[in-house]
Amino acid sequence: MQVVYEDNHIIIVNKQSGEIVQGDKTGDRPLSDIVKQYIKEKYQKPGEVFLGVVHRLDRPVAGLVVFARTSKALTRLNKMFAESEVHKTYWAIIKSSKAGSGKFCDDGEWHTLENWLVRNEKQNKSYAYDREKPGSKKAILKYRTIGHSDNYTLLEVNLMTGRHHQIRCQLAAMGTPIKGDLKYGAPRSNPDGSISLMARRVEFTHPVSKAPISIEAPLPHDSLWQQFF
To answer: Distance between CA 116 and CA 138 in Å, rounded?
Structure first.
């Protein structure tokens, strides 16, 4: 576990791909429990440690996760996330051979994707449509190209809405699935089971002190990520 920011009210952790943020049916130890143990040991806290989960990242995704250390921070952060006052920037790697096909624009400018997403609970998957469908929710994101390697393209993505698997689903619908994302059409998995998507940056006003917070996650040690820089 890598802590990238902490104070009395919040703690921000750089999640590794494969970790789950909160407990689920797998029974695997979640990141929330690991963070609680870290706080308990570092500050020698007796009894149960309070930790509030305010958002999640998909298991195969890496990057920044914000937790609340106090009930005051949890209440305020929940409200901030609900009202889109927390700005998250994602990076995604796609296959360069896809560039220029379909709706994808590779000019370095910001472009907007709008779809209607329908979530299939049994499959744990979302499906994108160009028009509203029964049970669908509107999904909007902005993306731009920020890097190239010999075979891959690096995208920066900003979410305007927060839907299930939104980035994964919308990029796949554009004809550019994220590298390693078999669920959404990538031809091959990544060796470690990850997908090449990370929560790179988080920016918000501190829920208690009101100070501006801007944190950037280090890139994964994987050579593909590193070759862009």
So the answer is: 4
- Kindly list the distances between the CA atom of residue 59 and the CA atoms of 10, 84, 197, in Å, as whole numbers in the listed order: 22, 22, 11
Structure-block tokens of residue 164: 């299930």
Q: Are 64 and 90 in contact (CB under 8 A)?
A: no
Better-scored residue on pLDDT, 85 or 222: 85
Strands 87-95 and 152-159: what pairing? antiparallel
**How far apart (Å, rounded) are the C-alpha atoms in residues 167 and 193?**
18
DSSP assignment of the chain equals -EEEEE-SSEEEEEEPTT--SS--TT-PPPHHHHHHHHHHHHTT--SPPP-EE-----TT-EEEEEEESSHHHHHHHHHHHHTT-SEEEEEEEEEGGGTTSTT---SSS-EEEEEEEEEETTTTEEEEESS--TT-EEEEEEEEEEEE-SSEEEEEEEESS--TTHHHHHHHHTT-PBTT-GGGT-SS--TTS--SEEEEEEEEE-TTT--EEEEEPPPPS-HHHHTT-
**Hey, how many other C-beta atoms are within 10 angstroms of the C-beta on 19?**
19
> In this predicted model, what pLDDT tens digit does every residue of 68-126 receive, in sequence order?
999 999 999 999 999 999 999 999 999 875 544 568 899 999 999 999 999 999 999 99
